[in-house]
Amino acid sequence: MDSTAAGFYFPPVMTSLPTPIRIGIDFGTTNSVIVIARPDHTIQTILFPTPEGGKSETCRTLLALWQEEEGGRRIAQRAVGAYAIEAHMDDPAETRLIMSMKSYLAQASFRETQVFGQRLSLESLIATFLRELMTLGGLSPAQCHVTVGRPVHFVGDNADDALGETRLRAAFAQAGFADVSVMMEPEAAGWRFMQRLNHPATVLVGDFGGGTSDFSVVRFDPASPNATQPLGHAGVGLAGDQFDFRIIDHVVAPYLGRDCTFRIMGGEPLPVPIEWYHALARWHRLSLMRTPRILNEIADVARTASEPDKLKNLIELIREQRGQELYNAVSATKRALSSQATADLSFSQPGLEIATTVSRMDFERWIAPDIARLGAGIDAALSEAELEPAQIDRVFLTGGTSFVPAVRNLFTNRFGEDRVELGGEFVSVAEGLALAGA
C-alpha cells in the first residue's frame, strides 16, 4: 500500500505562528477538533484536508497502522481520519484500524494491544493519533500549549474517572505537547457560550458526544476576573451512538439473524447468542468479532438455524468489515429524522438488501429509555448545584445529538423554549477549550 497513491496529504508544519501557540483539542470518541486561540482572543478552527480534496472542521478519531516492504525491511506506516478509512479499505487484511480509543481510557482492564507483534499501550496509540492529527492540521505539538476536554464521567462499565484523566494527560505528554491542561467538556462549551453574554447568568450546558452526554451548571460573570464558577456536574454514559444502536437493534438486527433459533444435537430450539447483537452497539466492538473463533461459532450455529441465510449475513458483515457502511447509513437516517417525520434507511451487501422507512414516532419510542436517563442526568446536575429549573437563566446545548427533537424537548419542557439555545454541532467544545486556555 503506497501512502502517496492512497491520496494521503500532510501539509507542512506551521512554524510562522508565535510560540507558544495556545490550542484547544476536543479529542472525541468519534471525531476530533482543533481550535487555535489567537493573542487577540479570536479563534481559528483548523481545517483538515480530506481525500476528496475538500476541507473539514472535524477529523474522525481513527488510526490505521500497516507495514510496507522497503529495502528488505518492513516499515511501519500510519494514517488518521478519513485517510485511515482509505488505508483500511485498500487492504483490510493487512491494516489494523484503531477506533474509539477514548472509550478505553477509564478501563483498568485495557492496558495494551498487540499490533504486528509489538505491544502498544493505549496511551501510545492515542499519542500516535494525536501526532498525526497535528501534522494533518499543520501544527507541531512541541509548539503548543493545549487544553484538552474530558467528559464528566468516562464511558464504560466500572469506569475509573481518575485513571481516565491520568491516561489522557499521559497520552498528550507522550505526543510531545509543551503543556497540557484538562477541562470538563461541558464547561468548555459554556466558555464558548459565555462570549454571547453581556451580564451575569446561571447556565446549564448540555454537551452530547458520541459516547457520553455531560451536563454542567455554571455561573458566568463576564465582568469578573473569575468569569466562571462551576456549580454542578453530571454525566451519562450514552449519546448519539446509543441512538444509532436503537435503529440497528429494531431495524437491522432481524436481517442478521437476531430472532433466529438453532438446535444442539437435535434438541429443543434455542435462541442464538444475543451477545453477537449487543456488539452491534459500537462499530469498534463489531470489528473485534472478526476472529476465526467467533466467525466459526456463528457458522456452526447457522448450520442448524431456523434462518441460516440471516446468520450468513452477519458473517459477511463482520468478515468483510462492512460496519463502517452500516453505521454511516444508520447515522444518516437518524440525522434525517431530526427534521423529517420519516426517513429512508438503505444498506446492501452480497446476499442482503435493506430498504425501509423509519418513522420519528417509532424512533422516539425506541429511545424513550435513553431519554429518561438523560433527564435523570439533567436533574442530577441541578441537584448538585442545589438549584431548581426556574433558577437557570440560560441553557446551551452542543453536539449533534442535541438536534434530536426528543432531546431538545427534554430541555424546552423543563426550562421553556426561550431559554434554550443550540451551539455549533461539532466545534463548540474545542472553541471553548481554546478560549479558556488563552
Automatic annotation (TrEMBL):
CDD domains linked: ASKHA_NBD_HSP70_YegD-like (cd10231)
Top-rank taxon: Bacteria
GO MF assignments: ATP binding; ATP-dependent protein folding chaperone
InterPro entries cross-referenced by the UniProt entry: ATPase_NBD, Hsp_70_fam, YegD-like
Pfam families on file: HSP70 (PF00012)
UniProt keywords, alphabetically: ATP-binding, Nucleotide-binding
Keyword Nucleotide-binding tagged: yes
Record carries keyword Nucleotide-binding: yes
Annotated protein name in UniProt: Hsp70 family protein
UniProt source species: Acetobacter syzygii
